[in-house]
């Protein structure tokens, strides 16, 4: 193949354009990484809208930034070639290079190759995904509060009151209170929310107090009655008990309704099964007791005796000791602070109640009947509450019929639909807990939009808190990618400056051969280079040239050019 003359002209098309583009891409990727991290720092993960995950996006940007880490042509063939092959070779190079000043660029690139080991690891450490609460206040979180009580069921207008099916849910919830169950307060809270909160709330409610009453026996009278479930008669001791209540908060009321007399009966001789003993009696006196200014809802009292006795004859019989209980109910204003609704239930940091003060009553004639309403005020909050007379009176009358009961140890016919063993239920219940349940249930019924019993309900807005996964940036781990980019840029600029007066051969392996190739006569081949020789020039000079590694006259190996 004919020899070629050295090409001495400079061809700018093969200058540093590829490297400039690579460094530009590296800088742009790093800048994009910083911008991305800044935009997503401390934001909810659900707001990430790209089809790939944040970790994948960051890994992609750091991978693009590594395009500037391509191996460079090195002056020392053995050490530099090893350094270009990976971190281990770079580390060996750092310990063996003899002139750090002359090899400044190559030392830098060796360090760069070693530091690049941590680039992917640092990128993985950039993101954390902590769980923290996010507050939403968009009006969807509400809790009911009663500004008055005008029942939709027990206050239904004629002629449909007898056909009013809405009374059934109300009665059902009230009956559940006799088992100690409390109707839940009404609120709306998103299903996925960890909790919902309200600062404070005031509502019309029913308050209660519970105490033990004093009881004394007034003696017993003997009588004969039929034995339950059998044809024969038995002797019973009917004992009278007098109840008094020295703990009543209303002395005038206590004087009006106390003392109260109740009676219990016991079979003689006593038996262990189906004795027919009357062991419980209770009464409910509906309010108000001072019309129309009174706020009393009603008074409940009960007498309870042991279920069995150990008396065999009339002569040995003494009235068994009985327990008496007293509960008072009244209309009140209830205030709650620091309300939290969680899956486990509703909790309050603090709560208080206040007996209402009468303001005025108003009477309206609608052409069919005369209707009255009573307006009361809570002095601590300044809020006014209105009670409709029909609701007021009908509800307390219902409690009178419900809680006036007796319980006897006898058989009932379960098929008789008229029998509801209220007395037996009350006898077995914790009456103090039942009293609290009645007051809380009535309060919550008046506030409930679920039961939809009250016309006078308002919504109190609250806040929802969600357990949200957030993106949080660990900025310390960004130092390595930034340092890599800065070092790449600096080393590239130094490379351009240092090689400005040298052949620009970059990573061509032909540069290793060009100055050592000789022909058959032992003369140096014309693969000569000047400071203006480019990689493209060298490729053209080497085209078609065949070389062979063989010993010279002194036995030293070298590359020799062969024409064929």
UniProtKB/TrEMBL annotation:
InterPro entries reported in the protein's UniProt record: DUF3176 (IPR021514)
TM region(s), chain numbering: 15-37, 101-119, 475-498
Keywords annotated in UniProt: Membrane, Transmembrane, Transmembrane helix
PANTHER family, sorted: DUF3176 DOMAIN-CONTAINING PROTEIN (PTHR35394:SF5)
Protein name, UniProt field: Uncharacterized protein
Record organism: Xylaria hypoxylon
